[in-house]
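Check my protein:
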Amino acid sequence: MSRGFLDTLVELHAIDIHRHGLVSLGKPEGFLERQVRGWAERWQRAKTQESVAMDSIISWLAKNPPVSPPPTIVHNDYKLDNVMLNPADPERVEAVLDWEMTTVGDPLADLGLTLCYWTLGGAYGMPGGEGWFTRDEIVNRYAEATGRDVSHLNYYEILGIFKLAVILQQIYFRYVNGQTRDERFRTFGTRVQALIDAAHAKLTD
């Protein structure tokens, strides 16, 4: 499953977006800057209290974008529960689901987000346990297969955690303001804070 999941991401990022006319899905230039700005604006609209740590994360992301590799398709939500596996051959991915956030831009944004979930038993992710690839194995296999520089992957993982925090905050905002009464969302404020803490702990000078 680990191999199939990762190798499918490699295949996705190998699609020639110019040959197949997919470059029109987005604007590759300035991709990271727009991602940070757009998600920061969503945070401002959805926050229920001030957060110095989140302010620091946004500032750091805005000031430290790495140089992006050539653009590819970016799924923008690539994780295990967005793929369908062949029950007779779990290494074979039959379909990738949930394409509504797909664009073209920096492929390492997908890898960074994948690592947010691939925490091996962490507080906000999956999978974990014996048999799964470690995070290093995920990164090394991707780097070997694509030849892309992954030395700035910490930035992309922080970006991914930041985006997850904003998504959960948007849901929590709706709960706090009575726009939904689903009690599953009552604890989302705590989950958002855990994500903020995790991203902030990864900041570097």
